[in-house]
């Protein structure tokens, strides 16, 4: 119980700040998006552009460019001045993006200005939802996925502990243990996060931030499709036994799934297994062990030995249970103290 509380406390140190910052960014993006959607129903009047230029903002390492506008308009005889062309205005490292907007809004021209009913001082030049709002949400998607993953890890730490070991038999008669149960969610999150970043980069290079709404909708469709395909692919691999540790009694062999740099399955004869050991692998700065690796030592046909990582566990009891199950079937023991490698 103490280890679970300690693990949750360590996670919360990262979860709370990350979630707070991401939540604040989400609030800004969603509120801007909501106002932009509402502006589609706002009345409009003709206004005059009194300023339209490229604005460069320089920082220590880069310079970003955006559109800086000012316009005047009158509502019910009252004159107003506005400076917003959208609620969520993008800035880009490419000056061409801002220059295109300057061409679209030349100085001195008469343009429609959309103002908020009952509060005419709030106005925009572009009304209604566009790709820029959808791309802004896409920028935030990877950060939200990380926040969800961190929150899920905290939740998993407080869930009722699953059985230490759950085995089943496949049609070929092998007794199996499925490892890495969380891979499907990880693949979905990775696919959606990476495809979102790719769409943002490609959209920025192609001027998609200022493109019509269907461009943003199509980009989101691509991101969602990547997540769905990744989930289906991962589930198919699990169903096919890609993550299974297989114990073949008839052939007296052990089949290890891909793990820790091992890209393909590795079949090991029982008689070649010399020992199994559980090793602490990851420690926090405070010295707390957070993961345990189960490692197999096997004899090579040409002489010598090889160390093969089997799986990694958060709970030491789970790693020990799998080690005991394997030792019982393989008739091997634990590595002698002198053979234990330092973690």
TrEMBL record:
Transmembrane portions of the chain = 134-158, 187-209, 215-233
Q: Would I find Lyase among this entry's keywords?
A: no
Task: List the Pfam families.
Answer: DUF3592
Alphabetical keyword list: Membrane, Transmembrane, Transmembrane helix
Tell me which domain of life the UniProt entry assigns to the organism this sequence originates from: Bacteria
Q: Does the keyword Phosphoprotein apply?
A: no
Where in this chain does the record put each DUF3592 domain? Answer: 45-129
Q: What is this protein called?
A: DUF3592 domain-containing protein
UniProt organism field: Stigmatella aurantiaca
């Amino acid at each position: 119980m103490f280890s679970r509380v300690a693990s949750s406390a360590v996670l919360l140190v990262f979860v709370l700040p990350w979630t707070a910052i991401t939540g604040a960014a989400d609030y800004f993006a969603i509120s801007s998006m909501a106002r932009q959607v509402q502006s589609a129903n706002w009345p409009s009047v003709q206004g005059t552009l009194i300023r339209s230029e490229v604005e460069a903002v320089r920082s220590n390492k880069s310079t970003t460019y955006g559109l800086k506008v000012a316009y005047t308009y009158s509502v019910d005889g009252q004159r107003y001045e506005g400076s917003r062309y959208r609620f969520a205005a993008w800035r880009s490292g490419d000056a061409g993006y801002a220059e295109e907007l300057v061409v679209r809004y030349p100085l001195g021209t008469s343009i429609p200005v959309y103002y908020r009913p009952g509060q005419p001082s709030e106005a925009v030049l572009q009304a209604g939802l566009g790709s820029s709002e959808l791309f802004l949400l896409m920028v935030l998607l990877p950060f939200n996925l990380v926040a969800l993953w961190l929150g899920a890890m905290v939740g998993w730490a407080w869930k009722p502990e699953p059985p230490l070991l759950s085995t089943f038999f496949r049609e070929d008669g092998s007794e199996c243990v499925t490892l890495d149960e969380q891979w499907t969610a990880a693949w979905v999150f990775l696919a959606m996060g990476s495809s979102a970043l790719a769409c943002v980069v490609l959209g920025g290079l192609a001027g998609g931030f200022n493109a019509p709404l269907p461009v943003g909708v199509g980009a989101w469709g691509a991101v969602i499709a990547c997540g769905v395909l990744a989930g289906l692919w991962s589930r198919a691999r699990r169903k096919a036994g890609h993550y299974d540790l297989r114990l073949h009694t008839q052939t007296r062999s052990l089949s290890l799934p891909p793990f820790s740099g091992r890209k393909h399955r590795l079949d090991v004869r029982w008689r070649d297994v010399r020992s199994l050991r559980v090793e602490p692998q990851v420690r926090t700065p405070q010295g707390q062990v957070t993961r345990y690796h189960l490692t197999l030592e096997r004899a090579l046909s040409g002489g010598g030995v090889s160390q093969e990582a089997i799986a990694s566990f958060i709970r030491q009891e789970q790693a020990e249970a799998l080690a005991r199950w394997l030792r019982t079937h393989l008739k091997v023991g634990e590595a002698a103290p002198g053979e234990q490698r330092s973690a």
